[in-house]
Design brief:
By secondary structure, the chain is α+β, with helices and mostly antiparallel strands. It is 46% helix and 21% strand. It folds into two domains: 60 residues, Arc Repressor Mutant, subunit A, CATH 1.10.10.10; 182 residues, 2-Layer Sandwich (Beta-Lactamase). The strands form two sheets. It has a six-stranded antiparallel β-sheet. A two-stranded antiparallel ribbon has the order 1-2. Strand 7 and strand 8 form a beta hairpin. The protein starts with a helix and ends with a helix.
């Protein structure tokens, strides 16, 4: 029984401190480092935790934790909670809306609502991209503690070596601007040229960003004059979903 309680305690601490290493977990829990390591491996094998920074052996939770948490009270997952707001945003703008979850240093698309227009943005459900490559990821990072952002920016994007990837200073500037205005915007960025997107973070009951909501528009149809109106709708929808998560 003690080992089960220790494992659950480690899971809780990782959820609150991620990304976090063994030494910090041992200090926070009072559990020996060797026991903490065994707990981490057990939780990894069960699909609850993953190594998010291999260079520094730091751990974070997987999407499984959020999914179970959301089902706990209302038997609903994030897609079901968010569906009315996602559909309404798509109807109000007639543009594609994407819902995604943060998974460590990555962003995973879990639901989409397509535009009815012939030319529209398409991204398959299940697509994984680096957090820093998306407007939603920038919106999420704008709500994180500086230390956690520092950890995320240590991840190299070797698979995008041929692209003009913004350096960390540029990204920090964009994160700060996003935090100030309350939403992220990316027009024909390095990851998806010819696409404009506006995104806002979705938070849990502790105000920690766990997901993102994105409005994606083909650049050929993007009108800067509508940015403020679109941003207001995106932020309102993201806030609505955050409220539903907090109340489950």
């Amino acid at each position: 029984m003690n080992s089960v309680l220790s494992t659950l305690r480690v899971l809780e601490e990782v959820g609150m401190r991620q990304p976090v290493g063994v030494s910090e977990l041992a200090r926070a829990t009072g559990i020996p480092k060797s026991s903490v390591q065994r707990c981490l491996v057990t939780l990894q094998q069960a699909g609850w935790l993953r190594i998010v920074d291999r260079a520094h052996a730091r751990w974070g939770v997987t999407m499984k934790v959020l999914a179970i948490g959301l089902r706990g009270a209302g038997e609903q997952d994030l897609r079901e909670l968010a569906e009315p707001a996602v559909k309404r945003l798509a109807a109000e703008t007639d543009e594609t809306v994407q819902l995604g979850l943060r998974d460590g240093a990555e962003y995973v698309i879990v639901a989409t609502q397509d535009s009815t227009q012939v030319v529209r943005v398409f991204l398959e459900v299940g697509t994984r991209v680096p957090l820093r490559a998306t407007s939603a990821g920038v919106a999420i990072m704008s709500r994180l503690e500086p230390a956690e952002v520092d950890e995320l920016l240590r991840h190299e994007l070797k698979e995008f070596a041929d692209s003009s990837v913004p350096d960390n200073d540029e990204l920090r500037t964009e994160i700060a601007a996003t935090a100030e205005r309350g939403y992220a915007i990316n027009v024909s960025g390095w990851f998806r040229p010819h696409v404009a997107s506006i995104a806002a973070a979705i938070t849990d009951a502790s105000r920690h960003p766990v997901a993102g909501l994105t409005l994606s528009v083909p650049q050929m149809r993007y009108d800067e004059a509508r940015e403020a109106d679109f941003a207001r709708l995106v932020v309102a929808a993201a806030d609505e979903i955050s409220g539903l998560i907090s109340s489950t």
